[in-house]
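Entry:
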Amino acid sequence: MSLPVVLLTLFGLGLPTWAATPPVVEKPAARDAIARLQARVAADAALPLQEGTRTRLMLQPHPAGKGVVVLLHGWSAGTYQYDELAPLVFAQGKHVYIPRLEGHGFRTPDGVADPSHMVGPRERTRYHAFAEQVFHDVSGLGPIQLVGLSGGAAVALDIAAHHPEVQSVVAMSPYLGTQDTRADGIFRAFEGLDFFSFGQASRVLEAIPHDWGEGPPDGPGHWKHTVGGIYALSCYGHAVTESLLGLAVPVQWITSRGDRAASRRQFFRGYDLAGGDSRHGWYDFATIGHPMLSKHNNPDAASIRVLTRITLDFLRTGKRTGRRPSS
């Protein structure tokens, strides 16, 4: 497969296309990785997906000297969440890969968001399989760094827990369980019932609709889904949390006390299991909401500037910002 111009077009929202000399790939491992990533992008181009949700790839015009940064978007959202951050990461001289989260982005023939492909209660192993696939796809491009938001942060932490060669992770609002304590109790009960019913009990959750409240978001994604999808993500988040014991990969956590979606209790458990302040940084906002990264989801431009600075500094130098809050 011939190599494209340095940057594949960023799909959605009319973003510009950069052009430069095609990359010169010297190592077979890097050539193979680029071929895998190009195939992912091409496969998404052939699917009935919403604009702003397709997999994206930004390639440097030189061999993989500075490595690759994988940007993992939030659950029920899309790759559009990295429209602003991706070019800034690319400017650091690294390849940038933004995969579409497992099961996300589909639309019906008449253009309506279609959540039917999203991970359900009985198939939540798809998340870990996706994490392993992402790691395999980028392996060969040099040092790997991960940035994740919400469910994407859970995937990033999952990758790091199983692959200590990952250089670093930025975990924004990691969804490691639901903040709704009543729902969390129900989910834990269903986990027990699933164990004794061979996964059949949680089928009822797939029939219960759920949405994020009044009005659609300013951006593509899945505003409407099912309780079963949240249950599957929550179960996955709990499993990822337990896998963080003694995590060798440094993590910059970025959270908010105003988060009404992700479990703050799980933030603390995951951070402490992973080694706490001796290995990681934790910056905690006061009031912003869960989908903190994108201007389409977060109207507070000042907070976006802060988390962008923290993220870029950590990717460039490994500088950790902040310590574990007391509550």
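The longest helix spans residues 28-45.
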